[in-house]
Specification:
By secondary structure, this protein is mainly alpha-helical. Helix content is 63%, strand content 4%. The protein is built from ten helices and two strands, in the order αααααααααββα. The protein has a two-stranded antiparallel sheet. The N terminus is likely disordered.
Length: 272
């Protein structure tokens, strides 16, 4: 997988005589890995849920961000990476904490701390594929931080606003595209059955179940136009600015601290 990505990235290198940065092969390789992994996840979703519900699964913010970041790294667009990494920060960091909790408490089935991480299949089992297609929640942010550090790209408040706009657009499209009704899933193990899906929290808050106030505008109880508007505004404000605002500060510190250490080491080597 990694070798194939490296070969593709090297094939995308500039022609002889064109100067390229030393980092170009690395970020093209990471971007290609992102796209290949996204293609693998797409096939998994189609196999696991069927073509219709599997297509809806691709609307998850993390899946769109994975694809967009892959393109962004191949084209060397750090602004795209900055926007997407801030956008998924809350979900991914909570997923990491959930995973550590599951690991040290000795169980990955129904043993989530924040109710975010889930490695099970539709049939309720854990397989290599179900773990692999969820693993990007663990390594996506570290790869993005690595890229932004190498590009010496600091996060700014503008990135927080752009990520909020990006999330709001994805959330609106999800609410318009995905039906509220129970959808038929065609699973190779369980067969055909009806399932309610909650892509991008378009019907109710996802995770942090202990905080009851997060559920006071859930569309399960307010499924009309007024309820949709109120819920949409509430969820996007709390998620995009309150929760992501905190993790934005964490990300900005992580990138800035890394760049500061790099500069310090460089100055020491130069004897400054």
């Amino acid at each position: 997988f990694i070798c194939f990505a490296l070969c593709v990235s090297m094939a995308c290198q500039p022609k002889i005589g064109v100067v390229a940065s030393d980092f170009s092969t690395v970020h093209r390789t990471i971007g290609t890995m992102f796209l290949l992994y996204h293609a693998y996840c797409t096939k998994y979703h189609f196999d696991e849920y069927g073509r219709i519900v599997g297509s809806y699964q691709l609307l998850w913010l993390c899946n769109i961000s994975l694809f967009g970041s892959g393109i962004g790294m191949i084209l060397d667009k750090p602004d795209v990476i900055a926007c997407t990494v801030v956008a998924v920060s809350t979900g991914h960091y909570l997923w990491v904490f959930d995973t550590f909790y599951m690991f040290f408490s000795g169980g990955f089935l129904g043993n989530s701390l924040f109710g975010v991480a889930d490695y099970t299949t539709v049939s309720g089992t854990i397989t290599f594929n179900s773990v692999w297609v969820s693993s990007h929640h663990l390594w996506f942010i570290p790869f993005c931080i690595f890229y932004l550090r190498k590009k010496r790209r600091f996060l700014t408040v503008r990135d927080l606003h752009y990520s909020a706009l990006y999330i709001s657009i994805v959330a609106a499209l999800t609410a318009l595209i995905v039906p509220m009704e129970c959808l038929e899933v065609d699973n190779p193990v369980r067969g055909k059955f009806c399932m309610y899906i909650n892509i991008n929290m378009f019907r109710r808050w996802w995770g942090l179940e202990g905080l009851e106030f997060l559920h006071m505008f859930d569309r399960d109880d307010n499924n009309d136009m007024q309820g949709l508007v109120v819920y949409y505004l509430f969820v996007n404000f709390v998620h995009n600015y309150v929760l992501n605002g905190y993790w934005f500060l964490v990300l900005r510190w992580s990138i800035s601290e890394g760049l500061a250490n790099v500069n310090k080491k460089k100055n020491e080597e130069e004897g400054v």
